[in-house]
């Protein structure tokens, strides 16, 4: 089992492609390389007019997988806090 799967507790997530695919279920995902490292952001789908919700990683991840993993973890934590997961 990969590190990503252990952290997200989802055995279906094995690599970056799986992380990206999982993230698209919740909104629009962006991942890109900055000067100091990789960054990921998910613009969440909402069902309320005029509302936005974004989840972001830091800008200094060593790999794209780390950035996407961080963002997905934060998104799941936010959904749990809001009672949506």
Structure description:
- A 3-stranded antiparallel sheet has the order 1-2-3, with helices on one face.
- The chain contains 3 helices and 3 strands, in the order ααβββα.
- It is an alpha+beta fold and 85 residues long.
- The model is unreliable at 1-8 (pLDDT under 50).
- The longest helix has 18 residues, at 64-81.
- The protein has one domain (3-81).
- It has helices spanning 3-8, 16-24, 64-81; strands at residues 27-34, 37-44, 54-56.
Question: Percent helix among the residues?
Answer: 25-40%
Number of helices: 3
Helix and strand run: HHEEEH
Integer average pLDDT: 83
Rg estimate, integer Å:
13 Å
Low-confidence stretches: 1-8
Question: How much β-strand is present in the residues?
Answer: 15-25%
Task: Tell me the layout of helices and strands.
Elements: H1 3-8, H2 16-24, E1 27-34, E2 37-44, E3 54-56, H3 64-81
Antiparallel strand pairs: 1-2, 2-3
In short:
With 85 residues, the chain is of the alpha+beta class. The chain has one domain (3-81). The protein is built from 3 helices and 3 strands, in the order H-H-E-E-E-H.
Give structural attributes.
three-stranded antiparallel sheet, 22% strand, single chain, 85 residues
